[in-house]
Amino acid sequence: MTVKPVSSPDGLAWFEPERFAACGARAAFSTRAGGASSTPFDSLNLGLHVGDAEAAVLENRRRLWSALALDPAAPAGARQVHGARIARAGPEDRGRGALAWSQAFEAADGLLTVERQVPLFVLGADCALLALAAPGGSGCAAVHAGWRGLAAGIVEDGARQLSKAAGCSPGELHAFVGAILGEECYGVQEDFARGLEAAWGRAEAGRYLARGESGRLGFRYAAALARRLDIAGVKPQNVEHLGHCTACRRDLFFSHRASGGHTGRMAMTVWIP
User: Fold this and answer.
1) HEC assignment per residue over 121-164
2) Under the phi-then-psi rule, with left for phi > 0, alpha for psi from -120 to 50, and beta for the rest, what region is 21?
3) What contacts 24+ positions apart, CB below 8 Å, involve 44-47?
4) Residues facing 76 on adjacent strands
5) 226 inside domain
6) How far apart are CA 103 and CA 78, in angstroms?
7) How far apart are CA 76 and CA 95, in angstroms?
8) I want to staple 259 with a disulfide (CB 3.0 to 4.6 A). Which of 137, 187, 236, 263 is the partner?
């Protein structure tokens, strides 16, 4: 399945999944190109919470969402906490968090809506950003699935809640996963392994923990995410992965880990036109 790279005349670049059109929805995963922010947030940083100049971030959001033919004041976002809470957005929530961090949904890592023209967005820079679309324009969701949220079931719960709200089965959902931290770059410590084992059991967690020749422990993030989507009932043929590693492609994406924790954020935006 194809994930389309898209660019604008003024240098913006993002990726769109072609299959979402069949669901009556659109999704876009941003890159770091074409923005107004200075180093180390250069240049299309979309996070208001990372220390960048607020005016630059708001200009970046205006540029991206305008290029997507959205009202820049319309998307709804959340103050993410690496948890598993999914919040539901209605017409009255249009624009929550678009222009001010304080106005975003509090302590949520996923948003869903069954409303048209209520765009949703989540932010990340290594963590998986996931868009879900239900058939016939009946609903969509944006999910920030860091490893803690993944372990706590945010993917399964997001698919369950969206399918229930949209009146469809999880097997009818389509999913799009943006760039994430790749296995070779995702070294972890023993406490990470213990956290996964506590959530999934030792045998299941062990499928996604790989120890290299040096003894270094790595997390098979993409494989773990694919497994959670499968458990959620989303069909593999309905899942599109961007397939890039954020740390390996810092020319295209922000990477929290590769930058030492001081960098910008990409956005996954999803909406029903």
Assistant:
1) EEEECCCEEEEEECHHHCCEEEEEECHHHHHHCHHHHHHHHHHH
2) alpha
3) 44/12, 44/264, 44/266, 45/254, 45/263, 45/264, 45/265, 46/121, 46/123, 46/264, 46/265, 46/266, 46/267, 47/123, 47/125, 47/264, 47/265
4) 120
5) no
6) 9
7) 5
8) 263
Phi-psi bin for 102: left (phi > 0), alpha (psi -120 to 50), beta?
A: alpha
Where do we find the tokens 């209605």? Answer: 90
43 cis-preceded (ω within 30 degrees of 0): yes
Helix (H) or strand (E) holding 268: strand 266-271
CB 128 within 8 Å of CB 145: yes
CA distance 146 to 151: 9
Of residues 114, 119, 161, the one with CA closest to residue 138 = 114
Does residue 180 lie in a domain region?
Answer: yes
pLDDT tens per residue, range 30-62: 999 999 999 999 999 999 999 999 999 999 999
User: Does the residue 213 lie in any domain?
Assistant: no
Eight-state DSSP code of residue 108: -
Is residue 198 over pLDDT 60? Answer: yes
Q: Position 113: which residue type?
A: T
As for how many domains the chain has, the answer is 1
Portion of the chain with pLDDT greater than 70, in percent? 99
Residue 4 CB coordination number (10 Å): 11
Residue 1: what pLDDT?
Answer: 53
Query: Domain holding 28: CATH number?
Result: 3.60.140.10
Residues pairing with 217 in the sheet = 188, 211
Got the DSSP string for 56-98? HHHHHHHHHHHHTT--TT--B-B---SS--EEE--GGGTTTTT
Question: What is the C-alpha to C-alpha distance for residues 15 and 24, in angstroms, rounded to an integer?
Answer: 17
Does the residue 229 lie in any domain? no
Range of the domain at 179: 3-184+235-271
